[in-house]
C-alpha cells in the first residue's frame, strides 16, 4: 500500500492503529488476522458453553446502538459483542427444539466469513466471475437432482419467502395474467404465511389466494382443488397456480404431490412446491420417497438453511424452465458487460446479492451425499424415537411426514389443553428444553423440531418423561 | 456432548474426525477452531496479495459442484476453495473502480462470521432475543438520524431492490390502491432498474411505472412530475408515489429532494427516496447537504453495503411511520410467542432472516461518526481529485453529486466515442485499472466509482494520465 493510502486506512482508527478498517492489497493485514482470530475464539467459546445456559436466554442489558463521535477500540467492541451474544438464542443447545433453526454447519460458518471477505456481488458476472459460474452450475445440479429436467436451474434467495414470491410471479407471468385482477392461487390451509405476503405484494385481490380446507392431517386433497377450480371458473376467475407444501410448519406434513401434479397438468395450472422444509429429501435416494412427485413440479422452494444446517440465509428457487425466471425478472443492466450466461441479478427479485452459494457449495462438498443422508436420517430417527417415547394415553400425536412432532391432548381432554400446554412448556423450560406453542385450527399444541444434531437419545428420554408425566397427571 | 451425539457428529466425517460437522454445546470445538483459523489464513493471504493480480481475474477452472458420495477432507475442500477464490473479483485492488462494490470493512467480516455461528433467526424475537432488539433500535437510530422523526423506524433487507419494493408496497397500501390497476408510480429516467422489477412483481400494469425525462444532469424536475400528474389524472389513473433518487447508478446525481418533497406533500403523494448510494450522507453533518430534503421523505432506502463497505448484503428500508411497514406486511405468526415489539418477520417481505444487523452495528461502533465522515470524505475527495486530473479538452465529465465520475467525449467527437471508450477500457485493464462501460441515453461512457479506500492519489494520477493521453490522441 502506498504511504498515503496506508495513512488513510490507519487514521480511521485512533486507538488501535494495527487494526486498519480495510485490509490492504499489498501485504497480509495483521490487524485483520488478529481480529478474526479473536472473533474465532469468542465464537468457539460461545458455542462450546451452550449447554451451560438456557436455549433461550433471559433478557439482557441493551447494547448501545448510536455510534460514538470516535470509534470504539477492540476491547470496547468485544465487550459489546459479548453482551449481544449472551442474549442470543442458542441453536446448538441440546434442548433447543422449538423451531426449524438448527445450529450452523461449521464449514458454513467458515464459508460465510470468506464470502464476506471476498465481498463479490452476484448481480453480474463481472463482479463475481468464479462465483457466478459456481452459482449457476450448483443450482443446475440441484434442480436436476430434484428431477426437474435438462432445462431446469435456479437462483439462490435470501429466504424462502422470496423463493415462494418469485415462483408465483413466474407462474402469473407464464399464464399471461400479469396485472390481471382475476388471477387466483390455490393452496391448503396449512400453507406458510409467506404466501399471504406474496399475494399482497403481487397485488392479487384479497381473495386472490384461496386457502382450501385440508384433510385431518393437514394435506391438500386434489378433490378439494378440483371443486374449487370449477367454482372459480364459474365466477369468471383465472386460477393459475397451485402451491403444494412439502413439510407444513406445525406438523411437517407433505401434500400428495403426485396426485396434485397430475391434476395441475390436466388443468394446465402451475405447480409450485413449497419444499422449504422437505424438498431437501429429494437430494438423496433413501429419503426421496417422502416427497415423491416433487419432480413433476414447475418450481420448487428448497431451503438448505433448515434441516441441512447451512447458515442463514440459504434458500434456492428451482425452476423446471430456467428461462422463465429470466423472462420474468430481467430488466436489463445497461451498466454491465455481458457474461457467459444470464446475469445473477436478472434471474430473480434481488439485484446485488452476496455469495450465499459459497456456503451451500462448501457444505455439500464437505458432507457428501452420505453426509446429507445421515443428517436427514438423524433428524427423522430422532422424531420417530420421540414419537415412540410419548406413550401417555392422554396424548395425541398429530400425523407428520418429516422431523416435526406436534403434540396435543386427546379430544376428550380439550378443555384442559391450553392450561396443560402452557404448564408443560414452562416445566420443560425449567429443565432446559425449549419447545414451541403453536395453535393449529384453534387447538393448542406443543411442537418439537428434531433437527438439532446435538440432541441425544438421553435428552429425548428426559423430554418424553416430562411430557408423559404432565399428561398423566390430568386423569 | 453425550457419547452418542458426539459419535453422530464425528461419523459425519470419515477422514477428518477432529472436524465435527457442528460444534457441540459441551466444550469448545477444536475442529471448528482449526477450520476458522485456516480459513482466516487463506482469506488474509488472498486480500493481501490482491495488488499482484488483476482486479477482475481471467477465467479459471470450474469447480466441481456435485457432492461426491463421501464428503471431501479438509485438504480437498481448501483446494476447491482456493480455485474459486483465484477467480473472484478483487474489490480491494487499488484499480478496482468499476462499480459500487468496495472492499469489506474488516469488522464486518468478523461480524458475518459470528452471525453465521449464532445462526439466530430475525423472524421472531424468541429466535433472536438480543439481536431482534438490536435491530429495532439500530433501525430507529438510523431513521431518526436521517430525520424521519419520532415514529420512524425500519427494517434491514437483503439488498436495495427489496428495500425499494417494500417501500412501494407500503405506499400503494397507504393510498388504498392495493390491487388497483389504475395505480401509477413516477420516477426519473435515470432511476434504478430495481424499480421496473418492483412494478412487475407488484402487478402494476406495464405503464404503471412512468420514467419521466430528466434535465441534462439526470435530475428529475418537479415541473416534469407536475405535468405528468395532470395528464395521468385526466386519464383516470391514480398516481400514488414519486421515487426520487439520491445517487443515480451512472452519474451519482441526486434529485432535487426538497422541491420534490414539497410537491409530494401538496399533491398527497408518497415520496420514496432511493438513497441506496447517497442516503448514508445524511448520517453525518459534514455531508448532509448532499441529500438535503431527504428528511421529508416517507421512506428511504439506505445501503451500508455501498460506500461504507459493510459486507453484502446490507440495506435498510427506513420509514417515517414504522407502523405502516407492519400493517403492510404482517400476516400473523401463529406458531410464535409475541415479543416486546413487532416481530422482525412481520415488518417486511422477508421472513426468516440472518442477523445482517450485527455487521452494520459493529461497523458503525468501530468507525464512530468521525470514521463514517472520513470514509465518505475520502470517496468524495478521490472523485474530486480524479475530476481535476482529467484535463484533456476532448473529454466531457458528466455532472454528479457523489463519488462517481462518468467520463465521455465532447459532443463533436461523438462518432469516436464508442471506439475510444472500448480502446481506453482495454488499455486501462492492461495497466491494472478496471472501470465500467455504461451507456447513458445511448452515449458510451467510462465510469469510475471512487469508493475503494485502497486507491491512492498516485493511482488516480496514473489512471488520469492514461485517459487523458487516449483522448488527446483523437485530435
- Beta content of chain A comes to 5-15%
Mean pLDDT of chain A comes to 94
- The tally of structural domains of chain A comes to 3
Structural class estimated from helices and strands of chain A: alpha/beta
Number of contiguous helices of chain A? 13
Uncertain segments of chain A are 1-18
**How is the quaternary structure best described?**
homodimer
Helix content of chain A: 40-55%
For the biggest sheet of chain A, the summary is: 7 strands, mixed
Structure description:
- The structure is a homodimer of 475-residue chains.
- Chain A is of the alpha/beta class and 475 residues long.
- The first copy, chain A, has 3 domains: 3-90, no CATH class; 113-367, Aspartate Aminotransferase, domain 2 (3-Layer(aba) Sandwich), CATH 3.40.640.10; 368-472, Aspartate Aminotransferase, domain 1, CATH 3.90.1150.170.
- Chain A contains 13 helices and 12 strands.
- The first copy, chain A, has helices at 3-11, 30-48, 74-86, 106-118, 129-146, 160-174, 194-201, 222-234, 257-267, 322-329, 356-389, 417-430, 457-472; strands spanning 153-157, 183-188, 209-212, 238-245, 270-275, 299-302, 315-319, 395-398, 404-409, 439-440, 443-444, 446-449.
- In chain A, the strands form 3 sheets. Chain A has a 7-stranded mixed sheet, with helices on both faces. In chain A, strands 8-9-12 form a 3-stranded antiparallel sheet.
- The longest helix of chain A is centred in the last third of the chain and has 34 residues, at 356-389.
